[in-house]
Write a structure and sequence with these properties.
161 residues, Arc Repressor Mutant, subunit A, 7 helices, globular
Length: 161
């Protein structure tokens, strides 16, 4: 019988019943697959998400951009600085509000995004490939539903299309 300061075998095995544990682990696995597929580009999944949003929403302010991918102001600032250093995006002050910073993808960023698309998609496909084909869309809908329903608990709000 376990003491108060030890876990029983049942407690350890219950990790497989904890959504947070499984989601965190699946995220780790997906990031590893993404980095494997996209190693030649030296871009993280978050940076790829930023480039993807900027490709369809040019001259977007940093706060709105962060909300589009669900990351906070401090994190988005660092991500944008690294992308700007590589010449993949530009940042400038807004003409309307000088405190507001706008970001836009550069032609080099668009070119990189196009080169990455197939390999990034392969990482996404590999992540859910173990599921039967007929379950994949339902799984993605369930994930989107959970994210939307629990959105208020995140560090920043996420706006799913």
């Amino acid at each position: 019988m376990p003491t108060d300061d030890t876990l029983s075998d049942d407690s350890y095995h219950s990790l497989a019943q904890r959504p947070g544990f499984l989601i965190r682990r699946l995220h780790q696995i997906h990031v590893a697959m993404f980095m494997e597929e996209c190693a030649e580009f030296n871009i993280t999944p978050v940076q790829y998400s930023v480039l993807t949003v900027l490709a369809s929403m040019p001259d977007i302010d940093q706060v709105t951009l962060g909300a589009q991918i669900g990351i906070d102001r401090t994190t988005i600032t660092g991500v944008l600085a690294r992308l700007a250093d590589r010449g993949l995006i530009t940042r400038r002050a807004s003409a309307v509000d000088r405190r507001m910073r706008l970001a836009a993808i550069t032609p080099e960023g668009r070119k990189l995004l196009r080169r990455m698309d197939r390999k990034a998609q392969r990482a996404h496909d590999r992540t859910i490939a173990p599921l039967p084909k007929e379950e994949r869309a339902a799984f993605l809908r369930s994930l989107a539903h959970l994210v939307d329903a629990c959105n208020d608990y995140g560090r920043t709000s996420l706006h799913l299309p």
